[in-house]
Amino acid sequence: MRTGATSAQALVASSLARIASFDQAGPCINAISAVNPAAMDQARLLDEELRTRGPRGALHGIPMVVKDNIDVAGMPTTAGCAALRQAYPRADAACVARLRAAGAIVLAKSNMSELAASNGRFGYSSANGLTLNPYRLSRNASGSSSGTGAAVAASLAAFGLGTDSFGSVRGPACVHGLAGLRPTHGLLDCAGVLPLAPSFDTVGPLARSAADVALVMAVLAPGHGFGAQPQTLAGRRLGIVANFAGGNDEIDAMFDAATAAMQAAGARAIPVHLPTGALTLYTDLLGEITRVESVRGLDQYLAQAAAAAPHSAAELLMRMEASPDAGAGAVNPRTLAALRHALATRDQPPAAGIAAARRWRGVLSQHLIAHGLDALVFPTLACPASPRFDMADASYHCRAEQPLAAMHLASAAGVPEVSVPMGITAAGVPAGVSWLGRAGSDAALVAMASAFEQLTRHRRAPSLTPAL
């Protein structure tokens, strides 16, 4: 941009052409829920500003996608729910406002699992249908930030914002060959984000490299060291977590190779065995807390909604129940049942409270401190991306009872975790390796993950969405 070789307008035009070619045509990955009609006008203004005053920073004129549960002024926040198509926010979410102030352009809102709860249908919403994985259309795009993951993987935008309660940034990063960060809980302002479980919800970026994640986080969390940490594995002490092995032979072999690569780069690998409860955190703790918090959070958010939108969780449920029972636009029955149950039991306290979940921060800290570890490392998912809910895929194999269990550690503890690529399976879908650390160690984790990424260079663009 500074040399005139490209411009914000050229980047937006290229992104719009890719959306037309691959999102609604060709493989029809369906990652985009709505294009921002003002994107080109914003690009034109930023190009003029660059010419007359210079760039605001590294994100000046860079197009991004925003998950559809994050408020963008002038566009509805549907959270993938057809009943929220008239939910126009009064202002940008805090995270969007920061990025726009830094010069980033909201290109589009991205599709997602309805109300940020996949419930067996990763990437499916009654508002926009099913997002497909651009690496293999018969496999899921994970969730609930499915559209953000697929859009960034397919280069529909340079980066994207997702949200993560129980893996919704890390899962899509894993199955799309991306870098995705779940920050320390509370590091980023969640004002203007439709909630799932506020005790666990956080905004998180997805990008095609950990270095790009650091650029975005430097804007979202200035002063926290993003981009200032040494990108090296030499001398790092890494806890290699054994609890999540055995689900899939390919994933286990990739993780062994990843561990060997870390050691070859000068890191010391120390075996770590976590308590068996690490495998059942959602069933034991997180699901119950979500049941209680979801209705309260929705009530608070929807109370500020536009006049034509529902203004409470109960009103939202009524509108969802009035939608078609089957076919296009149908609500996931498990999502509907979960909201009904949460409303019916809203006055019943959870079987286990947030304090029980946060005790896992102490458990993880004990392992980190006892062994002098810089991070715990493990496969992001114990198995490759599973078949989409409406299609079988005989090439999929998984022995793990809870293939998502590893992601629940950081959620329960409120600590940071970043996932980066660790290879591509024989079926053509990417796999990821995660780096988890102490609260506040976000920048150091991203730097270590970036060093691994640069060393191994596992990421490959999806063949279904080539250069135009």
Automatic annotation (TrEMBL):
A Pfam family annotated for this chain is Amidase
The coiled-coil regions, if any, are none
**Which stretches make up the Amidase domain?**
11-445
Q: Which Gene3D superfamilies match?
A: Amidase signature (AS) domain
Q: Which InterPro entries match?
A: Amidase_dom (IPR023631), AS_sf (IPR036928)
Per its UniProt record, what PANTHER family does this chain match? AMIDASE (PTHR42678), OS04G0183300 PROTEIN (PTHR42678:SF34)
| Name of the protein | Amidase domain-containing protein
What organism is recorded for this protein? Cupriavidus taiwanensis
Q: What is the lineage of its organism?
A: Bacteria, Pseudomonadati, Pseudomonadota, Betaproteobacteria, Burkholderiales
